[in-house]
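HUMAN: Can I see a protein plus its fold?

ASSISTANT:
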Amino acid sequence: MVNFSTASSRGPSKAAALPSDDAALICFSHLRWNFVFQRPQHLMSRFAEDRRVIYWEEPENALPDCEPALGVRVCAETGVTVVTPSLPETMGEDERETVLSGLLDSFLSAEKGPFIRWYYTPMMLPFSRHIEAVSTVYDCMDELSAFKFAPTQLLELERELLATADVVFTGGYSLYEAKKSRHPNIHPFPSSVDRAHFGRARAMDAAPDDQCMLPRPRFGFYGVVDERMDLDLLAQVADAHPEWSLVIVGPVVKIDPADLPHRANIHYLGGKQYEELPVYLGGWDVALMPFAINESTRFISPTKTPEYLAGGRPVVSTPIADVIRHYGDMDSVFIADGAEAFIKGCEQALQLAQSGDEWLDEVDEKLANLSWDTTYARMAGLVRETLAAPAAGPNIVKAHTRKKYDYLVVGAGFAGSVLAERLASQHDAHVLVIDKRPHVAGNAYDHLDEAGVLIHQYGPHIFHTNSDEIVDYLSQFTSWRPYEHKVLADVRGQLVPIPINRTTLNKLFDLNLKTDEEAAEYLASRAEPVDRIRTSEDVVVSAVGRELYELFFQGYTRKQWGLDPSELDKSVTSRVPTRTNTDDRYFSDKHNIMPADGYTAMFNNILDHPNIDVLLGTDFRDVMDDIDAGHVIYTGPIDEYFDWKYGKLPYRSLRFEHKVVDQEWVQPVAVVNYPHPDVPYTRITEYKHLTGQQHPKSSLTYEYPSAEGDPYYPIPRPENQELFKKYEALADSTPNVTFVGRLATYRYYNMDQVVGQALSAFRRIDEQRKKTGKPALRQTVWTQAAE
């Protein structure tokens, strides 16, 4: 539940901070505190501002004839207590775990528990699993099993840690994609950056003693030099341009220094302190990331990418997935596969570095909302949720506790959740609901962002309906706040109402239309007759003429669908009315309302029934053979259910860019549309208009239509409907499965229509049950929901 009365006092980092008198945090890490200042150091330093933090390091070898012991010191800069066990080198593995467990118990006997356990490696679980914890966190910053000399038992211990952890973080999106099905409360946190620290490099042409004599141009790398670096590539770059100086700053580990490429223009300067890195970076022309493409780099999200950019240096990288994902669209990041392309990228980056500073504007915009403070705040908030949540964790109504069910519901959105609730409450059925996402509510999922503002993760969801039945049903699970949605369009430098109304016409064309009749006559004078209305273009041109069509519809539709309106079914634009009055509401339904505490809270109430189990982060394919259910209710993509037998059904997707801004209000209304084709996004949403929340900051979402990504909108073209008909025939002949919802019926429905469809599906199941005493063996719901 969102408490709007207190949200306004929250700042970006303290918003999620845990109270200072709560449990101490003990962090188990394979990385030395003083080795390289990176993710663990950034996060634990910030946690130490609010609580006691103990950083338990990897054991070191004890001096000969010395007994096991602990070295304890306090980091003067951060207040973190660093604990380093020392063990005899000859000690066996089992004995090591027993001794470490004893040392840990002895140390913690003087501490007040229980604790927050935070793991960077599963290898420390055996000697610490018994420690009483209020929350267990697994911050999986790397795929350690892919690293050189990885212990054989690591994967088994990771399985145990994933089963134990209350929340899991990953070091990037690639790693999140690989592990998201393995935990119900997992969140990606790519590498962040201390912009102020590395930004110092822009103002200096530094000259450390070991770098000042090296000739320009200088191409630099800092970081650990290990099996993740492509040493052959480094040598080829040096050989191609002997006039360049290649500067390598960082310790060499897990590889023999003799195996490093040695050239007159490659300079290995060794490890440096975190404070020194901007000084070296400031003396480079271009920053390098010559990573090998292998299993050890498959999931990495290099911290140095934003650090290099913050320091004002172009970056040349090999094709690391998360670098491409986050920075591949930038002019200052050159991603190159192979030595020839990498060398060319270096040449282009050098030209950019020597061309002036205009390219830094794009860099600053990209990094504007990226900081370790923000990452810390979001992580702290998620940990706080685990402390307040029931044992099953946030958003999980109840854990998966049984194997036999009356119904398996695939999808925890509107269709699946409503049917699960009806079946459990009205038929006393036992229902398992699964969803591949780590949360309930489907695309309607909302949550507090790092600033404490309630946002809709997948773009704005505005509830409107003419159905009293649907409102009455949902009112069992939420209270409401009235909200009338208004949208403005940015056209010719003005913000004008959309749908087009009399105000739009008067503002845009400097008119003085005073009545509905005058507006109707004006639109009729602009309309162009169309013999037969077949396409979306026909709908608009026949109603308002070509100029308004081009201003409001053509560019927006091209961006949204990737197709010209002349190529789309008439249903696309016929959804948006044209008015002759001054009504500026986007929807004119009887009920225009929003869940008072948000959609996620409403969904948790819908699914909070003793007969319903919810299993999140779970793909249907992974559990279909393990769950004994009499009937399946499937709300996912119908073509996926049938293994894409006839090919994939085309969908249009969306990419969302969420931003927090340091001002109370940005837009006059919740949504502003941008129809012009030169603007890459289609609309910007400001959520506080929707929620009624009071907060000194605001959160915006920019929507970018995409051909790739999660399926959002079925593309309405005749050939797509023909393909769907083939899947519909398969569904009709599939027993014990009910197909319901947007994706399963390849139709675009509003939220109320999906609820209506689910209630209709339940009525059919209920009727069948009354006739036969059992649910229908086959239920396929294709009809439009009744209003």
